[in-house]
Amino acid sequence: MKALILAGRFGTRLRPISCTRPKTLFPIVNKPLLEGIFERLAKNSIKEVIMAVNGLTKFYIKKQRIQEYGLEITYSIDPPKKPLGTAGPIKNVENLIGKSDSFLVLNGDIFADINYKEIIKIHKEKQALGTIALYKVKDPTRYGSVEISDNNQITQFIEKPKKGMAPTNLINAGIYVLDPAVFQYIEKDKAVSMEREVFPILVEQKKLYGYNMQGLWMDIGKPAGYLQANKILLETSNKKIKYKKKNSVIKNPVSIDNDVKIGSKTIIGPFTVIGKNVSVGDGVEIIESVVFPDVEIQDYTKIMGAIIGEGVIIGKNVRINKGCIIGDYAKIRDNLTIHEGAAVCPGKELTENILKSNGIC
User: What is the pLDDT of residue 198?
Assistant: First the structure.
């Protein structure tokens, strides 16, 4: 069976970090999300993967050189300046998929600890045209809400229902098994929505089924969700870091990648991820934050609940507060304070305090 990964989106809500990488390459506990997807597919005996991406996303994936776990990977490039919706990229791979077997479809910006073999088995047992992985959430209004019958047939599918209008708290988890016959429901070279156009038709025809997944599922589409995903995986890893440095403290759970330098009288953690080749000075505090690779953090700086992009240089005695996002290769001068929820664009040199929750470019 082949798997199709939809990974063309850069994610406006994760700017400015997503200005310089697609969401599928965001590190989750120091492993790119896409690499984790590849690993899980390989463990579930999937051999071939098709990446539905735009040209820029393909460039970034190739540049990162993530581990592919022996998968045979093919790229399907979305046409530039021509949105195809969520179904158009599926239609575009019709010839690559063929007509002989069902295929997996995965959203490349979702973390899901799912057994693909189980959803494939359910799909074939039901002889379904489509089977959707379902997950229970508190607020279904951001997703597709689903109602299912006792035999797991989907009887109602409402995309992004208004508050109080969702039939259940079960949502579309962004993972499907589809039969090649689904291609006839998608018009070629047009923007078509799986959620608003294709799935409702399959519900009417009683050809759409659901699979209730039980593992971890996380949407990293917002900064808070991205930090929460890292926090949950740190909590569940049971891996304790022992970093021997005089007068410095590592408060687990944390993840510290290779070639990280930590000064004295520094506190790291809890719930902190430090990427490779990061340099941390003396008297620094980094709490509940994600620091991308190649960052320099100078003495007596404090980072609380923030996302720090690749190659950032942070001066001495800087305060970066909760919800801040610092874009790649930005430079923060000494003695500055960045207000809660503020953002600094890639490559920007910051020379004065940010006292409001706004973006500085």
Answer: 93
Beta strands in 234-329 (DSSP E): 249-250, 254-256, 261-262, 267-268, 272-274, 279-280, 285-287, 290-291, 296-297, 302-304, 307-308, 313-314, 319-320, 325-326
Cα torsion angle, 83, 2, 158, 144, sign: negative
Tokens of 95: 């010839």
Tokens of 325: 């996002």
State the average pLDDT over residues 100-107: 92
Is the distance from CB of 178 to CB of 194 less than 8 angstroms?
A: no
Contact 350, 336 (CB under 8 A): yes
Which domains can be identified in the chain, with CATH numbers? 2-219 (3.90.550.10), 242-360 (2.160.10.10)
The DSSP 8-state label assigned to residue 232 in this structure reads H
Contact 92, 189 (CB under 8 A): no
DSSP designation for 43: H
The DSSP bridge pattern shows strands 72-77 and 170-178 to be unpaired
Rounded to the nearest angstrom, the gap between the alpha carbon of residue 269 and the centroid of all alpha carbons in its chain is 22
Q: What's the pLDDT tens digit per position in 68-91?
A: 989 999 999 888 777 788 888 999
Instruction: State yes or no: is 23 an active-site residue.
Output: no
Contact 345, 359 (CB under 8 A): yes
Q: What are the pLDDT digits (tens) for 245-279?
A: 668 899 999 999 999 999 999 999 899 999 999 99
Question: Does residue 282 register a pLDDT over 70?
Answer: yes
Q: What is the chain's alpha carbon radius of gyration, rounded to the nearest angstrom?
A: 22
Q: What are phi and psi of 242, to 5 degrees?
A: -110, 105
Q: What is the pLDDT of residues 173-193, one digit of tens each?
A: 999 999 999 999 998 888 889
Spatial CA neighbour of 148 closest among 197, 199, 215: 199
> With contact defined as beta carbons under 8 Å apart, do 114 and 175 qualify?
yes
Name the active-site residue from 31, 124, 136, 160: 160
Take residue 69 and report the two structure tokens written for it. 């776990």
Query: Is 326 strand, coil or helix?
Result: strand
